[in-house]
Amino acid sequence: MNKSTISKSWFEKKYKSNDGSVGYLRLRNEALTRVHHNTAIESIIKYSGGKKFNTFVDIGSACGDFTDLIYQNLDIEIGIGLDFIRDGLVIGDQRYTRPFFAEAKLPDLPIKNDIADLVLAMEVLYYLSEVELNQAIKNICRVTNVEGYVVVSVTLGNGSRQLNEEKILDLFKEKFRLKGKVYEHSLLQQIFHKNIGRILRYTKKFNIVSLRNTCFWLRDNIKIAKFNYVVAKYLLGTIAIKKGLYIFEKKSNVIG
Ligand SMILES: C[S@@+](CC[C@H](N)C(=O)[O-])C[C@H]1O[C@@H](n2cnc3c(N)ncnc32)[C@H](O)[C@@H]1O
Questions:
Q1: Which end of the chain is more exposed for a tag (fewer CB within 10 A), N or C?
Q2: Burial tier of 221 (Cβ tally within 10 Å: 0-12, 13-18, 19+)
Q3: Taking a C-beta distance cutoff of 8 angstroms, is the pair 95, 71 a contact?
Q4: What separation in Å is there between the alpha carbon of 124 and the centre of ligand 1?
Q5: What is the whole-number distance in angstroms between the Cα of residue 91 and the centre of ligand 1?
Q6: How far is the CA of 199 from the centre of ligand 1 (A)?
Q7: What is the mean pLDDT of the chain?
Q8: What is the predicted pLDDT for the residue at 29?
């Protein structure tokens, strides 16, 4: 794997220009980030069979938006968000009361063995080189309890800031079993098709026959126009980003 490394200063720039009013890449209100986070929560609940988690670690927590969402949706007692950019952690700390935030740079994980029931590595592993990746997985395994869960989300592919599915499954196969996988872009496509169906039904209802008239009608109806805008965003995301979410459980016979 030939990865171009994303520099620490690239992230630093992002967080320095973030006044704390919006999410980690000023994307908080964007549909794609919401879908990404909500899909992860729903999938964790689904594929763990509603398992009760007590402790979690969110690696690459940025400004803590997802870290806090975990608290809101799973009945968890202790959670920590880790990131190598201090500015994001400070924003998370100011914005959310429950998670602890601390500085850590993968592949190192300066936390105790067997401490977490749930480890999240969402949109972070593809920043690592091959050597760092192997070291990071070893550390993730070390801090995860037996039968604890690890959730990984990545942008799928072979380019920089991407990982392919074969690689992910290969990295985890020795010590983890795959409990579930979700292709987020497929979900987005389904949403899009459902919404297109709604638009067509509206069109029929108001007897609007041509696409041109439909556009005027949509433009004049602000509510529907907004809805259409969201649909377009979904579609753009569908075309541009293929995301995979993988849910693993640590095998019970694994030591370390
Ligand atoms: C794309 S954001 C993902 C944020 C969040 N996990 C989510 O899915 O919404 C990636 C985050 O990973 C952090 N990151 C990148 N490389 C890292 C490393 N080697 N160690 C720790 N954090 C890292 C970045 O600072 C950034 O906050």
A1: C
A2: middle
A3: no
A4: 5
A5: 14
A6: 37
A7: 81
A8: 41
Atom of ligand 1 nearest to the CA of 136: 19
Domain covering 8-183+242-250 in this structure, CATH number: 3.40.50.150
In the numeric block, which tokens belong to residue 183? Answer: 């292709």
pLDDT digits (tens, 9 = 90+) for 206-246: 555 556 666 666 666 656 556 666 666 555 555 456 789 99
Residues whose beta carbon lies within 6 Å of some atom of ligand 1: 11, 24, 60-62, 66, 83-85, 88, 105-106, 122-124, 127
107 preceded by cis ω (within 30°)? yes
Beta strands in 62-202 (DSSP E): 78-83, 100-103, 116-122, 144-155, 176-183
Provide φ and ψ at 213, rounded to 5°.
-65, -35
Residue nearest to ligand 1 atom 15, measured at CA:
124
Residue whose pair of structure tokens reads 């063995």 in the numeric block: 113
Q: Which two tokens stand for residue 61?
A: 């927590």
pLDDT per position as a tens digit, 163-204: 999 999 999 999 999 999 998 766 666 666 666 666 666 655
Q: Which of 7, 87, 124 for mutating ligand 1's site (highest number of atoms within 8 Å of CB)?
A: 124
CA of residue 194 to ligand 1 center, whole Å: 32
pLDDT at position 148: 96
Give the pLDDT confidence score for residue 217 in this predicted structure.
65
Query: Which atom of ligand 1 is the closest one to the Cα of 104?
Result: 21
What residue spans define the domains of the chain? 8-183+242-250, 186-237
Q: Please tell me the residue having the least CA distance from ligand 1 atom 1.
A: 123
CA separation for the pair 3, 110 (Å, rounded): 24
Whose CA is closest to atom 3 on ligand 1? 123
